[in-house]
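Contributing new records

If you add data, match the layout below exactly. Sequence lines come first and carry their own label; structure lines follow with theirs. Keep one chain per record. Anything else will be rejected by the validation script.
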Amino acid sequence: MLRHWPVGSGREQVGLGVLAALGLLAVLLLVPGSGEEGAEGAGARGCAGARVTGWRTDPGMTDALARYGDDNTRPDDWTGGDGTRSVRLPDGRTLWLSADTFLDEVHGRGRRPGPVWVRNSALVMSSDGRFTRTLLGGTPTRPAALFPGTATPDGREVWRWPVQAVVEPRRPGSAERVLRVLLWQREAGRAPWIYGVPRATEVATLSLPGLRLEGIAPLHRPGGTHVERRVLYGTSAVTHGGWTYVFGADEGSVGGKASRAHVARAPRGRLDEPGAWQYWGGARHPGTEGPGWQDDPARSRPILVGRTVQRGATGTYSVVRHGGTWLLLTMDAGAPEGKGITDIVSYWSCGPTGPWHGPGRVARPPLPEGAAQAGAVPYNPQAHPEFTRPGTGDGLLLSYDVNILGPAGAIHRDVAFYRPRFLRLEIGPPPRR
């Protein structure tokens, strides 16, 4: 087990999912801002700030997922994937969502000889921490994505990548609960859109406890001719104070511009209703009526993170609440060393719209043995607060994905090169100024 205490001292396809693409390409410029939500969202009371003060690897979680992936009992289950978001279900199980997923068997020392590829899947973990099954569409002999894709009129693929999910009442006040899964819809495109053209944000509803897919509803389809400014929501979602706050980003870096973070919110029990969503339109100045929260998604304005043009978050950042503080975790886009995206950093705020303070260095996540030489990179850090056990010293569970920047054959010769890995983070107050 690697320990690092403290922090802060001295395929021809590049990856398999848009999560890798966004994690490596989308630079979210962040500028300090003010806003009523800084006080309203966190209640200001109890917001003391937060930073990561130390980290260690969590081989237990990493190995649990690897054991499940290496188990050849069934040929239609998960052997590798990315995306890696989780949600605790009411009965104590955890559902893990995966974007581009490889199925089939693992042979020898981690070799995947005949991979079957689907665009998404989900893994069920029992209340005692064992991965038990993979949720897919199709049939056992012809598995397909859990959230099925479609095609454009001219025959190009349209697929869905699941992002964050939340448990909420079927309708406000209802005793029945369902699982809402936010989806990114993308379509095949030409360079520079080698990871797909962003099309829409959707939400799927799954029954509880059966996890049956009931349907997929459209939420927001951004328009306009500037494709790089289309915002997809769902990289993170936090339920607080009767609202679910849903974070997203555009993809301006594809066109050589800056990508930018956004946030929207919906009342609990109405995440699948487009008309119930509100979008942050910018700070409300004293003595004025707006903008604040807006009903029109076209009036959404960025919540920016970082203070320089080339420093900020990536498009697959994660947001959690720690006490009264909002904590944002991301790969460090535009780090001063100019060595590419290698480190995880954090920002904190007293509300979901900022202002965000940071960056604070978190960790340089370790790669599997031999992965660096093969061209692997870490990306998509995602927090899993449901696995934090207060008083045990476990700290905040954080996953990060690994993939190869190069020919896809490497991830089939060693399955560890395309699987999530896990850290435990110690959180403390920010340094005094």
